[in-house]
């Protein structure tokens, strides 16, 4: 069986960016991804992002990468007033000046970043529909067992880089020899970015909120959407999107049909009864995605977690098993920027070998 110098497990932004940089250097590697697509939590529908949406001024890795790939960006629309509601306040209109901070979006959605990276990475070095089920450390190799289209595939490599959330790795992959209790506890303790969240996308024929000098932003203590923004794309696909409240368990019990009905009611309650009917409502609940979330991720994070790389995850199997991803970034954890920083850090280690 041929031996690959490096296997990357996970084809989200971190894993694919690592593959792209290694390909530029002429390095030999194989990237395997459980889904039938690349991007991980980056997912776009009709130019609208169902996963991460923004990056911000000062996040230089993201800015430099979109420039390198010749992608076009635009500022998030937030001009106009905002709306607010709670059990005691009915659709109050507030000045939006304090919320007019600058954030950037990529034309045609963040998935266009993934598409460009994939196009520039040799296709023979990428294997989709490969779900890793076990990893075994042998004398001078690492043996990876993956399930692909109902069949088992065995891979032999010298080094493995996991570009997956640590909590998901710990929950779904068997290790031989087993990882220590301390390592497992540290992996379980790292919340998976976005795993407890759900986004609702509401598409319209026109941006009706702009006719009333509204930004499209709204904040609610009633729900089901707790925060709403203008999701319209640069190519005039108009939409609002909202972060759904409640836990993954609560949303699952409600069901998608009932949730969509509640979303329509909330939009009319906030923006008025003359609000036009949406073209469609799309819900992406990441807590129900088994390739993203575990049972520990059913509750969404209430604040932005302070991510850091646990000491216990360093130098496993004599440094032949490594981890990248926004959850283990040295800075900007929980952002797209963090995913790139974590990859840049591991590239330094790889180039030294």
UniProtKB/TrEMBL annotation:
<dbReference type="GO" id="GO:0016491">
    <property type="term" value="F:oxidoreductase activity"/>
</dbReference>
<dbReference type="Pfam" id="PF13450">
    <property type="entry name" value="NAD_binding_8"/>
</dbReference>
<dbReference type="InterPro" id="IPR050703">
    <property type="entry name" value="Flavin_MAO"/>
</dbReference>
<feature type="domain" description="Amine oxidase">
    <location>
        <begin position="97"/>
        <end position="340"/>
    </location>
</feature>
<dbReference type="InterPro" id="IPR002937">
    <property type="entry name" value="Amino_oxidase"/>
</dbReference>
<comment type="similarity">
    <text>Belongs to the flavin monoamine oxidase family.</text>
</comment>
<dbReference type="Pfam" id="PF01593">
    <property type="entry name" value="Amino_oxidase"/>
</dbReference>
<dbReference type="InterPro" id="IPR036188">
    <property type="entry name" value="FAD/NAD-bd_sf"/>
</dbReference>
<protein>
    <recommendedName>
        <fullName>Amine oxidase domain-containing protein</fullName>
    </recommendedName>
</protein>
